[in-house]
Write a structure and sequence with these properties.
Elements: E1 6-10, H1 15-25, E2 29-34, E3 46-49, H2 51-59, H3 63-67, E4 71-72, E5 75-80, E6 85-90, E7 99-102, H4 103-116, E8 120-123, E9 127-133, E10 136-141, E11 146-149, E12 151-154, H5 161-166, E13 174-185, E14 196-201, E15 206-210, E16 217-224, H6 231-236, H7 239-249, H8 257-263, E17 269-277, E18 285-286, E19 289-291, H9 294-297, H10 306-323, H11 327-356, H12 360-376, H13 380-388, H14 400-407
Parallel strand pairs: 1-2, 1-12, 2-8, 5-14, 12-19
Antiparallel strand pairs: 3-7, 4-7, 5-6, 9-10, 10-11, 13-16, 13-17, 14-15, 15-16, 18-19
Bound molecules: flavin-adenine dinucleotide.
The site of flavin-adenine dinucleotide has 32 residues, from helix 1, strand 2, strand 3 and helix 10.
Length: 408
């Protein structure tokens, strides 16, 4: 297949707009097709871009504009529900600052950047199929329309349609044993946490919260549950009932959980249902189609990395298409650059999920050993350095040899 000049990008979440911006910078025309009718249609909880995610945006020169949509969050405080501090992590020196966003704000900022870079974004266009033809790929949409291009990029999230079209035997998302809920509340009357995200291993469930100096305060809850509720099943339970259950679960904890839950309006409850990740996806590309972001490598929310990894992958995919002589070589190089890193992070996150769902004995051990481990073995650099220090040099041309060297 000859060099790529045009791409259809399916999905206008995080990976889609970023990939499209990167493709445009690589001299490739990109159109984003998003199933939702309007930008940022969905209500969404809080989402933090880690230093590596911000650095990947920096490689495209869009970090500052996107950063304005969020608040700085350079510190993470781990604690027990009883208020005992387990550890404090500050962003590592010399790196871009982590930032926390309301999901719709981040989506909107990325879409604005994409259109500003000349990307066409079409809403209300749900992909239902595609044909891989010798001279191009033809995408088919639910509204009966179609579009043709050189390549098709599946940035359509954890429940990706493109992934199944690419490989009907592709695995499905797997439940990680926790239900996810969250909310936004006015900050009045709450003690500011400054730029710190607090992560509290409560007696019965995990509670994350932040109260910035400006703007709304946010919280999220991870509840251990053997039952893997879908988002639709979880939302079938009224918000008032969820808030009542949550208050019961956090009644014995000394965190701001009860104060924040009492301030949460029913309409502001974010109900994710069962939290999921993706088992290794065997086929990332075939012919003219390729996966990027959660469609290829969704990590459970506990990693705080899903969005950042999606951004990295979008930038690397565009570099490969820019520099390698054929589509097949570009897709192969892209997978080589990305698979090991993302799958390692997904696997390590499974351990964090176990900590959040620990039983009584596990809780005692965790609360005793965690501070010791942080002081001795789990230094911040050791835990996060290899994740947060990942850098992409956009201006450095990729060659098969440099790809081999960086994955050796
Ligand atoms: C509760 C929760 C909290 C999280 N917190 C964090 C965090 O703090 N930090 C972090 O880095 N990550 C976090 N994540 C993970 C992060 O949200 C994902 O990794 C990220 O959104 C992946 O981006 P994406 O573009 O691949 O997929 P998405 O953001 O899901 O976007 C996919 C887009 O594709 C569209 N689409 C789907 N199907 C089609 C179709 N057939 N045709 C056209 N369009 C389609 C969807 O409407 C959507 O807009 C969290 C996830 C959850 C669930």
């Amino acid at each position: 297949m000859a060099k790529v000049r045009q791409a259809l990008v399916i999905g206008g979440g995080i990976a889609g707009p970023v990939t499209a911006i990167a493709l445009r910078k690589a001299g490739i025309d990109a159109t984003v097709f998003e199933a939702h009718e309007r930008p940022a249609d969905e209500v969404g909880g809080a989402l933090t871009l880690a230093p590596n995610g911000m650095a990947a945006l920096q490689a495209l020169g869009v970090d500052q504009a996107v950063a304005e949509a969020g608040v700085p969050m350079p510190r993470m405080v781990m604690e027990t529900g009883a208020g005992k501090r387990l550890g404090v992590y500050d962003d590592l020196p010399g790196l871009p600052v982590s930032r926390t966003f309301a999901r719709p704000d981040l989506y909107r900022a990325l879409l604005d950047q994409a259109t500003g870079h000349g990307v066409t974004v079409e809403h209300g266009r749900r992909l239902i199929g595609y044909d891989d033809e010798p001279d191009g790929v033809v995408a088919h949409f639910a509204d009966g329309t179609s579009a043709t291009s050189d390549v098709l990029v599946g940035a359509d999230g954890i429940r990706s349609t493109v992934r199944t079209l690419l490989d009907p035997a592709a695995p499905q998302p797997r439940y990680v044993g926790l239900l996810g809920l969250g909310g936004w509340v006015p900050r009045d009357g709450l003690t500011s946490t400054g730029g710190a995200m607090h992560l509290a291993f409560g007696k019965r469930a995990f509670f994350g919260y932040f109260v910035p100096e400006d703007g709304r305060a946010g919280w999220f809850a991870n509840l251990p549950s053997a039952e893997p509720l879908t988002a639709a099943q979880a939302r079938a339970v009224p918000a008032a009932e969820w808030l009542r259950r949550l208050k019961e679960l956090y009644a014995d904890d000394r965190t701001p959980a009860l104060a924040m839950l009492s301030r949460t309006r029913e309409e502001d409850l974010v109900n994710v249902g069962g939290m999921q990740d993706m088992p290794p996806v065997p086929v990332w590309h075939r012919g003219r189609a390729v996966l990027v972001g959660d469609s290829a490598h969704a990590t459970s929310p506990s990693s705080g990395q899903g969005a950042s990894l999606s951004i990295e992958s979008g930038v690397q995919l565009a570099r490969c298409l820019r520099d390698l002589p054929t589509t097949a070589e570009a897709f192969t190089a892209y997978e080589r650059l990305r698979r090991h890193r993302v799958e390692t992070i997904i696997a390590k996150t499974a351990r964090v999920n176990n900590d959040k769902a620990a039983g009584p004995v596990g809780r005692v051990l965790r609360d005793l050993l965690f501070p010791l481990a942080i002081r001795t073995f789990y230094s911040q650099e050791r835990l996060f350095g290899w994740v947060h220090r990942y850098r992409i040099d956009w201006n450095e041309p990729l060659t098969p040899r440099s790809v081999d060297a960086s994955t050796a």
